[in-house]
Amino acid sequence: MLILVSHPGIGSGIETLLRLERRYEIRRQRAVDPSHEHDWRPDIVIGETPMVASFPQTPRIILVGEVRPERRSPDGGRTRWLRKDASSAELVAAIDELLGRPGDPTIGRFVLAAFSAAAFLALLALLARALLR
Fold first, then answer.
1. Residue 22 in contact with residue 66, Cβ under 8 Å?
2. Half-sphere exposure in the Cβ direction for 34 (13 Å, CA)
3. For the chain, which residues make up each domain, given as ranges?
4. DSSP-assigned letter for residue 1
5. pLDDT tens readout for residues 5-41
6. How confident is the model over 102-117, as pLDDT tens digits?
7. Which residue from 10, 17, 43, 2 is spatially nearest to 108, judged by alpha carbons?
8. Would you say 62 and 56 are in contact if contact means Cβ atoms under 8 Å apart?
9. 43: how many CB neighbours lie within 10 A of its CB?
10. Could you give the residue ranges of the DSSP H alpha helices within 23-104?
């Protein structure tokens, strides 16, 4: 997938969220670069309206400040509008919907749950040790 976002912080944040999923091949650019078009075609493009428009045949997620009901694309369902501050789950769900994939549990979510459980158990152990003194 290709992430086309001019703001480096937003682009980096989206890339990090999607890399944690460990399901996608991701490339990020701050501008459309036609020289790479022959080397690699993305399955999906995520970005801002002007840049994403360069990929009319590719499924795309357009990042906006506010999603309005009138934003419906007459492109046969290949475009989704998503807020720039959407959660990781919303972004992954939009990607899976566009690619026709069912929502799979991912290693990224498993690792996060495992770390949370380990931290909770460590806290309980410290608490128990302090109470037994």
1. no
2. 1
3. 2-102, 104-133
4. -
5. 888 888 888 888 888 888 888 888 877 776 656 677 7
6. 655 555 566 667 778 8
7. 17
8. no
9. 13
10. 49-52, 88-99
